[in-house]
Amino acid sequence: MKESFDKIWKMLGLRYKSHPWHGIEIGKDAPDLVSSFIEVIPSDTVKYEIDKKSGYLMIDRPQKFSNIVPAMYGFVPQTLCKKEVAKYCMEKTGRKNIVGDDDPLDICVLTEREVTHGNIIVPAIPIGGFRMIDGGEADDKIIAVLKNDEMYAQWNDINDIPENVLNRLKHYFLTYKQLPGEDPKCEITHVYGKAEAHEVIRRSYKDYQNEYGNLEEVLSFTMLEAMHFGSRQQKMLEDL
Questions:
Q1: How confident is the model at residue 64 (pLDDT cuts 50, 70, 90)?
Q2: Where are the beta strands (DSSP E) in the chain?
Q3: Which of 1, 58, 117, 223 is most buried, with most CB under 10 Å away?
Q4: 3-class DSSP assignment, residue 184
Q5: How many domains does the chain have?
Q6: What is the per-residue pLDDT across 44-55, written as a single tens digit (0 to 9) for each?
Q7: Could you tell me the pLDDT band of residue 61, with boundaries at 50, 70 and 90?
């Protein structure tokens, strides 16, 4: 039976495009090495975001003023910021009534190479992150380096990143939703290292599993039920 389902999934993979959030695996070596789906790159003048229903990129909004993302920016597939991520945020900040933002976990991937477009899968090594709160919602930003990058692969933890690079990343996330005259919407309570980044990734993966379960297993059983239903219907027609 398993071989039959594996064959079905292989054929579906040849025929249909996988949903970037659900169909791409987080990676067998996570959280040390994770798959990252990149939505936005530094040269983009608009902010792209995944459409959760279709899996295609859509235009979220034009980038505000001169605020341009300073790294490849996207999310970690098969993650979700919900109860476990919010709980961890409250534990670390002492805040109450924090909830998850109900989105996949955001990630910035640093590389010295010029990447010319998004909508790509990138192998990334998490080395830290920002504990960000956006309107009472936990909205962590994982900071990672591109696997095998000639320059940045030597950075093993957040403390290895030069302060000016961190400040550039902080500035983007603290201002990317803010218009002139408005009060700040986002705050970064902590800059954390690799160990906490790994814990955030683990918790976001657990949140995803709690919300969606094993989608391949669920869909496999659904296909099995559909085949059984089809067989019963065929038998009824033959008996008429």
A1: low
A2: 34-40, 46-50, 57-62, 72-75, 99-100, 106-110, 120-134, 137-138, 141-146, 186-193
A3: 223
A4: coil
A5: 1
A6: 888 889 999 999
A7: confident
Token representation of residue 66: 């001169």
Look up the domain containing 169 and give its range. 20-214
Q: Work out the number of other CB atoms within 10 angstroms of the CB of residue 199.
A: 17
Q: What is the CATH classification number for the domain harbouring 135? A: 3.90.80.10
Q: Is residue 3 part of a domain?
A: no
- For residues 77 and 105, what is the distance between their CA atoms, to the nearest angstrom? 8
CA distance 32 to 178: 33
pLDDT over 70 at 4, yes or no: no
The two counts, helices (H) then strands (E), for the chain are 5, 10
Confidence check: pLDDT of 216 > 90: no
Output the six-digit token pair for 116: 């010319």
Q: What local confidence, expressed as pLDDT, does residue 175 receive? A: 84
Q: Please report where in the chains the tokens 């003048």 appear, as a residue.
A: 45
In a domain, 148, yes or no: yes
CA distances from 22 to 78, 194, 200 (A): 6, 25, 19
Residue 221 lies inside a defined structural domain of this protein: no
- Residue of 27, 33, 24 whose CA lies nearest to 153: 33
Question: pTM of the prediction?
Answer: 0.86
**Residue 104 structure tokens:** 């996949």
Structural domain includes residue 108:
yes
Q: How far apart are CA 8 and CA 4, in angstroms?
A: 6
Which residues, 6+ apart, have CB-to-CB distance to 177 below 8 Å? 64, 134, 185, 186
Task: Tell me the residue length of the chain.
Answer: 240
